[in-house]
Design goal:
Blueprint (H helix, E strand, L loop, with lengths): L7 E6 L13 E3 L12 E6 L2 E7 L14 H10 L4 E10 L9 E10 L24 H13 L4 E10 L7 H8 L4 E3 L2 H10 L3 E11 L9 H22 L21
Parallel strand pairs: 1-4, 1-5, 5-9, 6-7, 7-8
Antiparallel strand pairs: 2-3, 3-4, 5-8, 6-9
Amino acid sequence: MTARARRTVAVIGGSGMSQIFEGGPRAVHRVGTPWGAPSGPIEEGEVGGIRVLFLPRHGPGHTIPPHRVNYRANVDALLALGADAIVTVSSVGSLRENLPPGTFVLPSQFLDFTKGRPTTFYDGGRVFHVSLADPFCPDLARRAGAAGRAVGSPFTEGATYVCVEGPRFSTRAESALFRQWADVIGMTLVPEVTLARERATCYACLAMVTDFDVWAERPVEAKEIVETMHRNADRMRALLAHLLPTLGGVPDCGCHAALDAAGV
């Protein structure tokens, strides 16, 4: 498969992210998929000349917990509407002293500790074993890193994200264990990232640190996380406004070929 120029970028907004279109969206789509309904209506607009689709991961009003998000429907619906790449915004906890709340992080690896989520589009019929050795699109990562520096909100790059089932927070023992392996912890990366790879679609996660996980002695409080998210939301919207217009054209990556050698 030959790489094609990006014309449409999908943004999956996490907790605290909404209203990315100045003046509101120009269209709203309600899409059905073979896997059911996505988290909510998908907004369409334009940012800097590029067509953008926006979907709130947890639904309007944040009503869907992370373990109940219909990830397959979300990814399928966005691609059905023409998305050539998926950029997600996620809130995460920090497992490192040097990644305090307010830090923006670009993960490059992940560990999967989810338990009961459907993680593939290929449940039968034909089997694909996609490679997740390097799970994130390097082209999107480079451009996101440059956008962060340009707007004065640089990312910490090269981090490992451990994804847990949720919706509960970690025990102290779990947090101490995860600190040995990862830099940030969250509940929504998997299976989004694997589903995007199965559809040979560029994917990047823009993570916002909202708290120190419980390893830092104080239990995590949802109220504190929400307050930090809202403080970071304007910074992330400014970053997206700079990043999205740069994502057009033919990408410099191999994401489009993810299925070329994956079939059995």
